[in-house]
Specification:
The complex is a heterodimer.
Chain A (H helix, E strand, L loop, with lengths): L1 H10 L4 H21 L1 H7 L6 H23 L8 H30 L7 H18 L4 H30 L3 H19 L37 H18 L1 H11 L1 H6 L4 H27 L11 H11 L4 H25 L4 H15 L1 H8 L10
Helix pairs in contact in A: 2-4, 2-15, 2-16, 3-4, 4-14, 5-9, 5-10, 5-12, 5-13, 5-14, 6-7, 6-8, 6-12, 6-13, 7-8, 7-12, 9-10, 9-14, 10-12, 13-14, 13-15
Chain B lengths: L1 H22 L8 H9 L15 E5 L10 H16 L2 E5 L7 H13 L4 E5 L4 H10 L4 E5 L3 E2 L5 E2 L4 E6 L2 H14 L4 E6 L4 H21 L4 E3 L18 H13 L4 E5 L4 H10 L4 E6 L15 E7 L1 H14 L10 E3 L6 E3 L11 H14 L11
Parallel strand pairs in B: 1-2, 1-3, 3-4, 4-7, 7-13, 8-9, 8-10, 10-11, 11-12
Antiparallel strand pairs in B: 5-6, 12-14
Classes of the chains: A mainly alpha, B alpha/beta.
């Protein structure tokens, strides 16, 4: 019971805690950047004879790093062309697309009381299904592209729904099963990329041919940008998930299951079926993230197709409070971190791991609302009456 | 309980504070500007590095990162050597575990945007990204380690501003296999990869050929676990190039099956084999990419390192940077560099703590000569 309260506290509440959690993580990241900086290390060696050096070195390193992060993810004011200036923002949105889609899927399952850790595997399944359709058929664009995206949705939904089925019929714990299914999916992908099913002919490396032109998600801004139609799909899904969870009767059943399974059962909701549905919807959204990667971003299937999007999505769902619009905001933040990290490293020599630390501390701070409250002297929320 | 922990925290805080105070006690260096100002009266900034050359070489790693004590680190060392010996500027981007194709592309793009004259892509995973960047930036030179270029339909592609750097590692692995077959007490060896990329299996395949050669020569029956199947796709692999625990696990399984010399071809994952070698008596391992005996990351079990199959990527990286600096850089497929025993691009490390069986050193030298002269052919994808 106590655990449930904690979970509820982590998942519910307004946007204050997440925003402060992000702030605190950036502060913490700044400290690490300063510590890791060579000039700071040198200057701190004689801190007491000339403290100014250390302080300016600290400020330089932190400001330089976050400036590069900004230029790499939002607006590059140093770029020579207008195209180059807005490119970082488009990169951020391109990365945000799969992360948000998978995050939406997880938000649906978390809201319904199912802790789906399997977005990684569901992305892979979506990617495999989408790639199969993209590689095997020659169809007109208006049929082929939607079909490939739907195949991705189907792949993820099957892989996720299977977990729901196992839980509904055998009571298998979805956390354990989804974690294991991630490995199964990855190993299956690795295997299939070595067989003629996916591996490109005359190719020794585990990599597929590019998917057919007609199945690709078209670029939005033209050749110089990586932004593709997946972004529109993602934005549509944000609205769709909001409608599903808050305006439809299925969503009502999902949420009822999340609040109290026993009460939901008493109210006449078919619990086993709802488990399957929740996991299928959740997996289907993650599968679309995989489809967006194969058809829009990478355009071919590789072992690394899912990157770490499935795990980032967990944090994104947490940070977005399982609210579709919150997930969108968190997804864009994570997309920005991913895209900005590169310039931060290329320009300032800050290790990419800093971004991972920032992401991880966000989780830590979100999981500990009292810590964030005391850190920023926020008032305690009123006790929620259940 | 709470008082104790509070005391403990106070103690730690005090220790930390005093350490900081002590650390901060050094004297400040002389202010260069003021000295300069009184001497010459000019306001020009002093050059901190006298030898700085206006040339920037950059590098993007693949999954393992530059601290993998193996593949990426070996290449990175070449970049660092170029920085210190040639006085050029450098920049490097390390790819996260789970980087996507687009991330490799944006890493290369931002390095080009930072004004790099030459960009290295380390690992075949970067092939597509290097190709796209090379097409978009014909004035920048590129070098791609472990892969050639290909079109979208995988027909080979040659670009004038891309130099492929590849290694016929099988030749050195052959020698290591021969050495291991001669050294083993149990008659059982083992090998595994991270992911069975061709650049990985080439080690395992060459190793196996060396063992087979020894068997045929001496009528022995030394076997290689992890590479027993005819089909290379069924050889052992841990699934990635980052999870050391998996390497340890798999190595322990091999040791349980009587293997006493293990060749891990999985970058940092091989450290798991090193750890496993400490837990069992008489287990040795063979390093890959650089001489593991000399690397800090492998110091704990260096007494168990039989030899290493070296890919001298740092030399190639250094030489290619130098050619770029001299203006003698030539790209294109016909000018690709393939490291082998003959040109010293690959080799096995010299004998360290583990003593070789009698006569093996001379046998290895003879084999090396035969391979270089072409009398003995080690099969690999570079020889058809």
């Amino acid at each position: 019971m106590k655990q449930q309260n904690l979970v509820r506290e982590i998942f519910s509440g307004n946007a204050v805690i997440p925003i402060f959690a992000v702030l605190a993580s950036f502060l913490f990241g700044g400290i690490l950047i300063a510590f890791a900086n060579e000039e700071v290390q040198q200057a701190s060696g004689y801190f007491f004879s000339r403290p100014g050096d250390t302080i300016s070195a600290v400020l330089n390193s932190v400001f330089g790093a976050y400036d590069a992060l900004f230029r790499g993810s939002i607006f590059n004011y140093q770029a020579s062309s207008a195209e180059g200036m807005i490119k970082p923002l488009t990169e951020t949105l391109a990365y945000a697309t799969p992360i948000t889609l998978a995050g939406l899927g997880l938000a649906v399952s978390f809201r319904s009381g199912l802790f789906n850790i399997g977005a990684q595997g569901q992305i892979i399944f979506g990617a495999m299904f989408a790639a199969y359709v993209g590689l095997s058929f020659e169809l007109p664009f208006l049929i082929h592209m939607p079909m490939a995206v739907l195949a991705g949705l189907l792949g993820g939904a099957l892989w996720g729904g299977l977990v729901g089925l196992l839980k509904a019929t055998t009571g298998a714990n979805e956390v354990v099963v989804t974690i294991m299914f991630n490995y199964v999916a990855l190993l299956l992908l690795t295997y299939l990329l070595k067989t003629p099913v996916f591996q490109a002919p005359n190719q020794v490396n585990p990599i597929s041919s590019p998917v057919a032109e007609s199945s690709r998600l078209p670029g939005i801004l033209g050749d110089g940008f990586r932004l593709h139609f997946g972004l529109i799909i993602m934005l549509a899904m944000v609205v769709a998930v909001w409608w599903l969870m808050h305006r439809s009767s299925i969503g009502y059943q999902f949420r009822a299951l999340g609040y109290n399974p026993s009460a939901a059962r008493t109210a006449g909701i078919n619990i086993p079926l709802t488990y399957i549905l929740v996991m299928a919807v959740s997996g289907g959204l993650a599968g679309m993230a995989g489809a967006s990667q194969v058809l829009g971003a990478d355009r071919q299937l590789t072992v690394g197709i899912s990157a770490t999007f499935g795990f980032d999505a967990i944090t994104v769902a947490l940070l977005g409070r399982n609210n579709p619009f919150g997930v969108l905001a968190a997804g864009i933040l994570f997309g920005g971190l991913r895209s900005g990290a590169v310039l931060m490293q290329a320009n300032q020599g800050v290790p990419v791991d800093i971004v991972l630390v920032v992401q991880s501390t966000i989780v830590l701070f979100i999981a500990a609302p009292p810590l964030v409250r005391s850190l920023f002297r926020l008032p305690k929320p009123k006790a929620v009456q259940a | 309980m709470s008082t104790i922990s509070r005391k403990a925290i106070k103690g730690i805080a005090l220790a930390a504070a005093s350490a900081l105070v002590l650390a901060g006690c050094a004297a400040a260096p002389e202010e260069e500007e003021s000295a300069e100002g009184t001497d010459s009266g000019t306001s020009e900034e002093t050059e901190t590095e006298t030898e700085t050359v206006d040339y920037k070489a950059c590098m993007v790693s693949d999954e393992g990162g530059f601290d993998d004590a193996s593949f990426n680190e070996e290449a990175f060392n070449g970049l660092q050597r170029a920085e210190s010996e040639l006085g050029i500027e450098t920049a490097a981007v390390e790819s996260n575990t789970g980087a996507t194709l687009t991330e490799y592309s944006s890493a290369i793009d931002s390095l080009v945007g930072e004004g790099c004259d030459m960009v290295f892509g380390v690992g075949f995973a970067l092939a597509t990204a290097v190709r796209d960047a090379a097409l978009a930036n014909p004035d920048t030179d590129f070098a791609l380690i472990d892969s050639g270029l290909s079109n979208d339909d995988f027909s080979p592609l040659s670009l004038e501003n891309v130099k492929p750097i590849q290694y016929d590692t099988a030749e050195a692995a052959f020698l290591a296999g021969y050495l291991a077959a001669a050294t083993t007490e149990t008659g059982t060896l083992a090998t595994y990869g991270g992911i069975l990329f061709p650049t990985v299996t080439i080690f395992m395949d060459g190793f196996k050929q060396g063992v087979d050669y020894y068997n045929a020569e001496n009528g022995t029956d030394v076997s290689v676990l992890g590479a027993t199947d005819e089909d290379q796709a069924n050889w052992s692999a841990t699934g990635d190039f980052s999870d050391i625990a998996k390497g340890k696990n798999l190595s322990e399984q091999f040791i349980d099956q009587n293997a006493d010399i293990i060749l891990p071809v999985a970058g940092p994952v091989g450290q798991g084999t090193g750890q496993a070698s400490l837990d069992s008596e008489g287990v040795l391992l063979i390093g890959v990419d650089s001489d593991w005996y000399n690397l800090e990351a492998h110091a704990e079990y260096k007494q168990n390192i039989l030899t290493s199959i070296e890919k001298k990527m740092s030399d190639a990286v250094f030489n290619v940077i130098q050619s770029g600096l001299d203006g003698t850089f030539v790209g294109g497929d016909e000018n690709q560099y393939v490291g082998n025993l003959a040109n010293g691009g690959v080799r096995i490390s010299p004998e360290h703590e583990v003593a070789y069986p009698d006569g093996i050193q001379t046998a290895l030298e003879a084999l090396t000569d035969q391979i270089i002269s072409g009398e003995l052919v080690v099969n690999s994808l570079y020889k058809n």
